[in-house]
Amino acid sequence: MCGCMHSSRDPELHLEGDPSLSAAPTSTLAPRKMPKSISISKQLASIKELKKGSDLEKAIATLALIFRNSSDPDGKLGKATAKNLLQTQFRNFTEGQETKPKYKDLLSELDEHTENKLDFEDFMILLLSIAIISDLLQNIWSVKIMN
Questions:
Q1: Percent of the chain's residues with pLDDT above 70
Q2: pLDDT attached to residue 147
Q3: What is the spatial distance between Cα 79 and Cα 39, in angstroms, rounded to a whole number?
Q4: SS3 call for 47
Q5: pLDDT band with cut points at 50, 70 and 90 for residue 50
Q6: How do the domains of the chain map onto residue ranges?
C-alpha cells in the first residue's frame, strides 16, 4: 500500500444517524468534540452549507464528523479507536475480508504505524483502501443503473 495509516471507532461514543446520509467536509477538523448525545444526522443538519449539498459532499461531511467525534483533543485517533470504528461503522466493507492478504496487510500497517495515532488523512486512506479491496464494492459495481 501507500504506507499511510488508517482508523476505527471509540465504543463509548454514541453516534446515531441515518447510514444513508452522505456529507461534505466541514471547513476544518477542530479537535473539540460535539456532544455525544447529538446524532450525526442532527450535526449534519446544523451545517447550513450542506442544506443543498450533494450526496458526495454529505458523505465526506459524515466521515469528518465521525472522525472528529471519535478523535482525541489533538484531532487524532488511537489505533484501538480506529479498529473499533472499522468494526462498528465500516463493517459491511470489512466483513469477510479477514482472510484476504491485502486486508491483513492494511491492518498490519495500522499496527506498525509509528505515531500510534491517525490523523484525518490517514483515516481516509485507510477507509478508501479497505473499500477498494472489499467484496461490497464489487457488489456495488455490479448494480444495474436504471434510466
A1: 73
A2: 63
A3: 24
A4: coil
A5: confident
A6: 1-147
